[in-house]
Every structure is written in structure tokens, then in C-alpha cells.
Automatic annotation (TrEMBL), chain A:
One of its GO terms (molecular function) is ATP binding. This is Fe-S cluster assembly ATPase SufC. PANTHER family: ABC TRANSPORTER I FAMILY MEMBER 6, CHLOROPLASTIC. Coiled coil: none annotated. The lineage of its organism: Bacteria, Pseudomonadati, Pseudomonadota, Alphaproteobacteria, Hyphomicrobiales. Residues 2-246 form the ABC transporter domain. Belongs to the ABC transporter superfamily. Ycf16 family. SUPFAM superfamilies: P-loop containing nucleoside triphosphate hydrolases. Keywords: ATP-binding, Nucleotide-binding.
Automatic annotation (TrEMBL), chain B:
One of its GO terms (biological process) is iron-sulfur cluster assembly. Coiled coil: none annotated. Belongs to the iron-sulfur cluster assembly SufBD family. The lineage of its organism: Bacteria, Pseudomonadati, Pseudomonadota, Alphaproteobacteria, Hyphomicrobiales. This is Fe-S cluster assembly protein SufD. It comes from Methyloceanibacter methanicus.
Length: 252, 452
């Protein structure tokens, strides 16, 4: 279970999260919606442990442990996974090399045995196929020259390989056409399980037709302004975020 | 001997003249070679050791760095066997399929070299010291003319003091299937100077790879001066590769000078990781239209190492292409220098010259100096240069850590990726892989990370 209490976080000395409370029980999928600039990505970075995001108040507990005490790699080992809104391009690192380094690092940290090369290849092939990822793509440098959809599918591939139990998806739907959206959603739904919690961040309701959440939270000005069931997403689709304002400074 | 008057000489500058005086009688060569040596030492005496006010040495103060000149090591009588070679170069490099030639403390070691196999292929070759006694015309021509001869102190000293090396001539149309691996070793224990000169002549249509590696047998206070000239006939191709892992105190001065004939290709590739001070010069001169060159490499330096790479490409004739890409990884107080000069003569229309140097600074105290120089006298040319310098990208680092890679491993992977680009571009894949492995070892990464 993830428990966030009174979370305050600043970037470059500016407070972005201003007393956020959120609880995601094991096995549940919660959606976070909200206008641009409301702090959705900030929340995801704080959860993943990005250094320039400073937590000034509040607590985050994950499976009873203080998440804020952990380095990003320790969080990954503890089961936290962030599918980035903008996945990084790394020229010179073959995607396959990266996947293998990541999987083995996490397995090692969890006290599991590293995969042998043939085992690893077999598993990657299997999971890549579900996401309609071509093996040729995995031989290319990480995310370099990948289309928006390829990058997002690659994120979900990493998620399925690393077997996290807290999956945070930051606008995984942005830039996806309807086919890619379906493939990605199926990939995500396949990972739903009673042990896994998911935080699905999205600006639009569309994704939630495919990944149906247990709860929906609306983020506004760095706090959860409203929570409800899946019907809340539909309501927002009609009314827009007008009622929730836009953070003045983030209009750009 | 009458010497040009220099206002003031440092001790080391005077020592070099004395070293020549003392050694001249014993240095190998015919009367004509002795005359060449005389003229070369005069050139040196007029120039002295280069310092910061000499434009080409702006960032490398050789005069300030050298206090003493150790004796010549020519007769060091070094013990060399397979285990010494492996210790000096590493197994991956030593076991590359190649024709091997060993220079131990400058001395050509026929007993350790694949002389017979190369001669069977039709290659003319021999110990430079022996060849100098009765130099064939091609050797004399290479010693006396070509790129970068005038006013080059390193070459002048080399011509005056060369004791060993190898002369190689590839006859017309010969293609060597395996590289020639020229191994330069120092000698353990006492300080010494090593002056080697290698001459490679590729006649029309010939092609070969010359891989020069510099390794240490535990040398202390070694001063190395190594010059290789390459003369490329029309439509010939030479790939010239270097791995420098000298002892940490060594002063390593190296010049490659290539004269490129019509439609010939000269590719150079250098990996530098050893020595206290290294100066790598590559001079390429196009003598015939339609030639091409690609000079690239990687410098890995840490501690107080200083590594200077200076390239000069002279486009004297039309329609030649030059490419330069160097990557530097600098840690602690290391200093990296990249100077790239492209000269395009008035008649050298349709020249295409590009140059790039990129440094990754792993510490706040590391320093990168880059100096591109374009001298263009023709109007129909495409020339460009660029230099970048930066630290590890924190965003990328976070991405990798968020995927579970421990920080040190993530850093190593990013450094590896930064330099990886130059190794991938190397035509000879097995040498490229071996050099990438050696650099990965330097970076402290297990080979696992270098490829799936
Ligand atoms: N690295 C940063 N430096 C400065 N301001 C930032 C940074 N990241 C986010 N912000 C600001 O924080 C606010 C919230 O951004 P973000 O969390 O990306 O919102 P959302 O994902 O909801 O669109 C915005 O006003 C944005 O400009
Ligand atoms: Mg966002």
C-alpha cells in the first residue's frame, strides 16, 4: 500500500505540491487527473526519487517503509516503477543492453538470480511480442529515433520486465494513436494483479476507457481537490478542468 | 659542429644536444643518413623545446615539463616473452589475429616478429636500424620529404636520434588480409629515451591495416619519441590504429605523417590512456585529387595526466574529404587538449572537411582545451568544426537509476556510451571490440555493459 500524507515539494525553490494526501491500497488502480501544471509529473518524480525535487514536508510510506529515505535505484528494487512522460534517449547504449543491465540490477538487489543470456532473450521476446515491439528495435540505441508510440511501448516493456508492484504511468497515453493506445493499455491491464498498485496519470479520460480505475483523483494547485469513482473521469470529460483552475504560473 | 644560436637553453634542451653529440658515432646509418641527422639536430637547435608561446603547442608546455634527458635505451636487452607482452597490452589486444612486429625499447626484435609470414605475402620489410645502413630509395624518400617535416621539433629530434623501428613497403596491388600489429615496449627499471621511426609505403592500389600499440614493461622515467610516416600511392588504403597505454610517468611524443595520393584513403584511429604527458600529432597531406581521410579516437585521462591531440589536414588538391571525431573522458585533474587544423589551398576546390571534438568532464578540476583552426583559401568548399564539453547528464543518470541501476554502474554506462560512438565507427570490428574492451576496463565497467 502507498500512503502519501501532507506532501509538500519544491522545485527551484518554488512550491509545487502543497499538502497532497493520497492512499493507494494494494491491487487498486487509481487515476490522477488534472489540468496542465497542476503537479502530476512532479508527484511522479517525487515518488521515483528525482534529486532536484525537494520534499519540504509530509511523508510517503510504501509497504510500511519510508520511501523518501531511499535512492532511486533502491526504490526500483523495492518495486517502484515510473513510466516517464518523456522517456530519455541515450545514444550509444543499445536498448537490449540497457534492459538487461536494469533487470539484472533489480534482480540482484532483490536477492534473485540474474538471468542467463538465453533465458533473458526468451523472456524479452515473449513480452515484446505482446506489445508488438520488433526485436530489431531493441538492438537500436535506447529510444533514439523511436516514435512517440515506440517510446511508450518501450516503457511498458521495461515495466513488465522489472516486475514492479507500484506502477506509476505519467501520461502514457499522450502522443499515442488509437491502435497504440489499445496495445499499451492491454500491456498495462495484463499487469493488473491483487499485489500491484497502479497510479495512472492522465490529462484525458480516453485512456481510462481502456484502463478502468478503481478511484479517480483530481489534482489542482498541488493538492487532491476531489476524489471519486470512475464516473468522475466522465464528468471531467464533459465539464473540463475549468472548476479546478489552472496554476497561474504554468499557463505556458 | 656549428649550431644556430639560441638565446637561452634550459638544461634539458642542452642535454638533448649533448645526447646527440655523445651518441652520433654509434647511431645507425650510412653517410647520407648521418648528414640527415646533422641537419635535423640543427633544426632542433634553432627551435629548442616547444612551449606555450609556440602556437602549435599553446596548451602543452614541453619545455616546462622536461627537466632532464635520460640516455638512449637502444641496447637495453629487454626480456620479452608472451607473458610480458600480455601484461603490457592485455590479452584481448595481444590475441588479435595479426602479423606481429615487436620493438622492445626501440629495438626491432626479429625473434618475436612475424617477418617470414609478411615476406611470404610479398611485403618488403626490415629493421629500420639495418635498413638505414643501405637505405632503399623508398625509405630515403620517406625520411626526407612529406607532410609535417619543416619545423616540427618532434620529427627533427626523431630524425637526429632514431635508433630503431621498422620499414615496410607494400608492393602495388597487395592487400594484406590481417593487420600488422606493431608493438612498442619500454624497458623496466631505469629511465631512458626511446626514439623509433617507422616507415610505411603503400604502393598504388595496396591496402593494409597498421595497428601500433604502446605498452609498458614497468618503465620508469621513460621519454618516448615515435614517428611513423605513411606514404599512400594512388588508390591505396591504409588504416592506422593506435593504442597507447604507456607507464604513468612516461612522456610520450608521437607523430604520424601521411601523404595521401589520388583517390587513396588514410584512416587514423587513436586510443590514448597512458603516460603522464602525451602529445599525439597526426598530419595528413593530400597530394592527389579524390583522397579521403577519417581521423578519430578517444582519450581517457585521470589523475594529473595531460593528453594533447593535434591534427593537421592539408587539402592541397581538389575534391578530398576529411573527417575528424575525438572523444575525451577526463577525470580528476586530467587535462585534455584537442587542436584541429584544416588548411585548404587555393586550388583545393570541392574540399569537404569536418571536425568535432567532445569532452566529458567527470570532475570539476578536469580541463579541456580545444582549438579548431580553419585556413581556407579556396571558395567552393564545405568545412565545419565543433567542440563540446560537459558533465554527465543528470536527467539520463536519473532515468537509469530509476530503472534500478546503481549510481556507479549508471555513470559507467553513460561514459561508455559517450565514447562508444567512436569505436563503433571503426572499420576493423575485431580491433574496435578489443579497444572498446580495453577502454571499458579503464572505465571500471565489466565487459557485460559494453554489449549484449
Ligand atoms: N524542473 C522544474 N523546474 C522548474 N519548474 C518546474 C520543473 N518541473 C515542473 N515545474 C513546474 O511545476 C509545475 C507543475 O509541473 P508538472 O508537475 O510538470 O505539472 P503536470 O505534470 O501536472 O502538467 C509547473 O508550473 C511547472 O512549470
Ligand atoms: Mg506532466
Amino acid at each position: 500500500m502507498l500512503e502519501i500524507k501532507n506532501l509538500h515539494a519544491t522545485v527551484d525553490g518554488r512550491e509545487i505540491l502543497k499538502g497532497l494526501d493520497l492512499t493507494v491500497p494494494a491491487g487498486e488502480v487509481h487515476a490522477i487527473m488534472g489540468p496542465n501544471g497542476s503537479g502530476k509529473s512532479t508527484l511522479s518524480y517525487v515518488l521515483a526519487g528525482k534529486e532536484d525535487y525537494e520534499v519540504t514536508d509530509g511523508t510517503i510510506t510504501w509497504k510500511g517503509e519510508n520511501l523518501l529515505d531511499m535512492d532511486p535505484e533502491e526504490r526500483a528494487a523495492a518495486g517502484v516503477f515510473l513510466a516517464f512522460q518523456y522517456p530519455m534517449e541515450i545514444p550509444g547504449v543499445a536498448t537490449m543492453t540497457f534492459l538487461r543491465s536494469a533487470v539484472n540490477a533489480v534482480r540482484k538487489a532483490r536477492g534473485q538470480e540474474e538471468f542467463s543470456t538465453p533465458d533473458f532473450l526468451r523472456i524479452v521476446k515473449e513480452k515484446a511480442k505482446l506489445l508488438k515491439i520488433d526485436m530489431a528495435m531493441l538492438r537500436r540505441p535506447l529510444n533514439v529515433g523511436f516514435s512517440g508510440g515506440e517510446k511508450k511501448r518501450n516503457e511498458i516493456l521495461q515495466m513488465s520486465l522489472l516486475e514492479p508492484d507500484l506502477c506509476i504511468l505519467d501520461e502514457t497515453d499522450s502522443g499515442l494513436d488509437i491502435d497504440a493506445l489499445r496495445i499499451v493499455s492491454e500491456g498495462v491491464n495484463a499487469l493488473r494483479s491483487p499485489e500491484r498498485s497502479m497510479l495512472v496519470i492522465t490529462h484525458y479520460q480516453r485512456l481510462l476507457n481502456y484502463i478502468v480505475p478503481d478511484r479517480v483523483h483530481v489534482l489542482s494547485k498541488g493538492r487532491v481537490a476531489r476524489s471519486g469513482g470512475p464516473e468522475l473521469a466522465l464528468e471531467l470529460e464533459k465539464s473540463g478542468y475549468a472548476d479546478y483552475g489552472q496554476d497561474e504560473a504554468s499557463a505556458a | 659542429m656549428e649550431l644556430p644560436v639560441q638565446q637561452f637553453r634550459t638544461k634539458a634542451e642542452q642535454d638533448l644536444l649533448d645526447l646527440y653529440e655523445r651518441s652520433a658515432d654509434a647511431l645507425p646509418g650510412s653517410a647520407a643518413i648521418a648528414a640527415l641527422r646533422q641537419s635535423a639536430i640543427r633544426t632542433y637547435a634553432g627551435l629548442g623545446l616547444p612551449h606555450r608561446r609556440v602556437e602549435a603547442w599553446k596548451y602543452t608546455d614541453l619545455r616546462g615539463r622536461i627537466d632532464e634527458i635520460p640516455p638512449l635505451l637502444a641496447e637495453a636487452d629487454v626480456q620479452v616473452g608472451e607473458s610480458e607482452l600480455e601484461a603490457a597490452l592485455g590479452k584481448a589486444v595481444l590475441t588479435l589475429p595479426a602479423y606481429r612486429i615487436v620493438l622492445a625499447a626501440g629495438e626491432f626484435r626479429g625473434d618475436l616478429s612475424d617477418v617470414g609470414a609478411l615476406r611470404d605475402e610479398g611485403v618488403e620489410l626490415g629493421s629500420l636500424a639495418q635498413m638505414l645502413e643501405q637505405p632503399p630509395a623508398w625509405l630515403t624518400a620517406s625520411l626526407e620529404s612529406g607532410a609535417a617535416r619543416d619545423d616540427n621539433v618532434v620529427i627533427a629530434l626523431n630524425s637526429a636520434l632514431m635508433t630503431g623501428g621498422v620499414g615496410v613497403r607494400l608492393p602495388e596491388g597487395l592487400t594484406l588480409q590481417k593487420p600488422i600489429h606493431l608493438i612498442h615496449l619500454d624497458a623496466p627499471g631505469r629511465p631512458g629515451s626511446i626514439y623509433t621511426r617507422n616507415v610505411l609505403v603503400a604502393e598504388e592500389g595496396a591496402s593494409a591495416t597498421l595497428f601500433e600499440s604502446f605498452g609498458t614493461l614497468g618503465g620508469q622515467g621513460i621519454q618516448r619519441n615515435a614517428v611513423t610516416t605513411v606514404s599512400l600511392g594512388a588508390k591505396s588504403a591504409v588504416h592506422h590504429i593506435k593504442l597507447q597505454r604507456e607507464a604513468v610517468e612516461t612522456i610520450h611524443l608521437n607523430v604520424w605523417a601521411a601523404d595521401v595520393g589520388a583517390e587513396a584513403r588514410y584512416n587514423g584511429f587513436q586510443v590514448s590512456m597512458g603516460a603522464a604527458l602525451a602529445r599525439n600529432e597526426v598530419h595528413v597531406r593530400f597530394d592527389g585529387a579524390g583522397g579521403a581521410t577519417d581521423i578519430s579516437g578517444a582519450t581517457l585521462a585521470r589523475g594529473s595526466q595531460h593528453c594533447d591531440t593535434t591534427l593537421v589536414v592539408e587539402h592541397n588538391v581538389p575534391a578530398c574529404e576529411s573527417r575528424e571525431l575525438f572523444k575525451l573522458v577526463l577525470n580528476e585533474e586530467a587535462r585534455g587538449v584537442f587542436q584541429g587544423k584544416i588548411v585548404v589551398a587555393k586550388d583545393a576546390q570541392k574540399t569537404d572537411g569536418k571536425q568535432m571534438s567532445q569532452a566529458l568532464l567527470l570532475s570539476e578540476r578536469a580541463e579541456f582545451d580545444s582549438k579548431p583552426e580553419l585556413e581556407i583559401y579556396a571558395d567552393d568548399v564545405v568545412c565545419g568544426h565543433g567542440a563540446t564539453s560537459g558533465q554527465i547528464d543528470e536527467e539520463l543518470l536519473f532515468y537509469l537509476r530509476a530503472r534500478g541501476l546503481p549510481e556507479a554502474e549508471a555513470r559507467a554506462l553513460l561514459i561508455q556510451a559517450f565514447v562508444g560512438e567512436v569505436f563503433e565507427a571503426l572499420d576493423d570490428e575485431s580491433i574496435g571490440d578489443a579497444l572498446a574492451a580495453v577502454s571499458a576496463e579503464w572505465l571500471g565497467t565489466p565487459m557485460e555493459q559494453a554489449g549484449p
